[in-house]
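To: structure subgroup
Subject: Chain for Friday's discussion

All,

I'm putting the inputs and outputs inline so they're searchable in the archive.
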Amino acid sequence: QVQLVESGGGLVQAGGSLRLSCAVSGRAFSNYFMAWFRQVPGKEREFVATINWSTTRTYYADSVKGRFIISRDNAKNNMYLQMNVLKPEDTAVYYCASDARPLPSVTTARAYGYWGQGTQVTVSS
C-alpha cells in the first residue's frame, strides 16, 4: 500500500521560510495527484495546494497563493512545499495526500485515500 511521510516542519519566525518534503513509497507515484493540507485543533482539514502527475498544473488556496510553491520530483518519489513569508496563521499540522483520482475535487480532503502522519509547522510572531 502507498505510504507517505512528511518532514521539514518546525518552529520559524514570521516572515521566514520552511521547505516541507513528502516521501512516497509503495505503488506507482508518477500518475497520482498530490496535495498538501493543513489542520489546526478543532477545525477541518484545510486545502493548501495540489499538483497533477505531470507537474503541469498547480492550484493554491487563496491564503497561501504567492507565498507557497508546490512541486514534485517523480523520479525521486518526493513532493515538496516551499513555504515563504510565513505568518502565524500558517501554524498547523501539514499533511501530504495522494490519490489516483481525487473525487469530487482535488481540493477536498475526503477525496484522497492516502495520507502522511503530518508535520508540525509553528510560526511565531
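Points worth raising on Friday:
DSSP finds no helices and eleven strands in the chain.
The two ends are 40 Å apart (CA to CA).

D.
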